[in-house]
Amino acid sequence: MVSKGSPHSQRSSLEPGPTSTKPGPTSTKPEPSLKPGPSLKPGPTSTTTMGLLESFYDPTINAPYDERRPSQTTFSKIVYVIHSSQETWSDDELEYNHDFIQWLFPLPETSRFNARAPPLDRQTRDAFLSRQELRDRMLQAWKRMMAFYGWDVNDAESDESTTSQSPGFDSASITPRDDFLLKAQETWLVRDNHNHMRISRMIRSMRILGLYQQAQAMLNALIQANNAAGFVVKSATTIIWFDTALRSTCYPPVYPREPVCDWLRGVDYEDGTEHSEDHEEGESFRCDGREIEFSPEYSMLFLGE
Predict the structure, then answer these.
(1) What is the value of pTM for the model shown?
(2) In angstroms, how far is CA 95 from the centroid of its own chain?
(3) What ranges make up the beta strands (E) of the chain?
(4) Taking phi first (over 0 means left), then psi (-120 to 50 degrees means alpha), and beta for anything else, what does residue 210 get?
(5) What's the gap between Cα 305 and its chain centre?
(6) Is the pLDDT at 185 greater than 60, yes or no?
(7) What residue ranges do the domains of the chain occupy?
(8) pLDDT tens digits for 208-258?
């Protein structure tokens, strides 16, 4: 009988006895149940192996960019996806929502307008360049925004040109819709508008993520339409569009207010090689029918959305 004051009386019947701490003859062998099985390894679409931007773009995960509105903020909800019966955002929703464009067309810099959107990093860039399905989704996003701005994009040409190395994509693949003038004047074909900042973002993002030819085609369509309308968009904006489409992608639109992106420095995504080409102060190019001399001061006038 154990006395009330005995130390043994304080031990629960579930606690191991004094001899349980001594290793037995088989204690050095690992228990089979402790071996990590294949189910513990993250799969190819696991969010543990990819960033937020990639998860948003991934067709299998289709993660929402805003957990507070999960059913309304997925890629497939914003952008029409082939063979999907889901009702997507209207043009009005694209116009008046300002927190989606940073997810559809990410950049290395944090947006001043949407700090919740993650900046583009090297891992996500590499994922886009190696995964055709991500570039195909960005192509769909671009086509949706082009329709919003008043254009149709030729499917045959665009589907063959979803990588920066694909030749043959030019402004001829972009055609005005029947309601082009109405849509353009409601969105971008005005002197000053927040869609101008979106356009600058789109051009640079597509160049970084593998849709180089589409970015150049977009610039051509914008400039031709603006010229035909009598140079409605202010020159400072069209200069920025030229600059964004032609200079190294490492430069943010507000350079030198924001620093150069080091991991993008010296990379040309048109052919995948490094280069040193860039606009220098004093260099000129044609814009609005006249010669424009490049100056870093122009970038200070344009704060990208």
Answers:
(1) 0.72
(2) 18
(3) 151-153, 174-176, 267-268, 273-274, 284-287, 290-293
(4) left
(5) 13
(6) yes
(7) 48-299
(8) 999 999 999 999 999 999 999 999 999 999 999 999 998 899 998 778 888
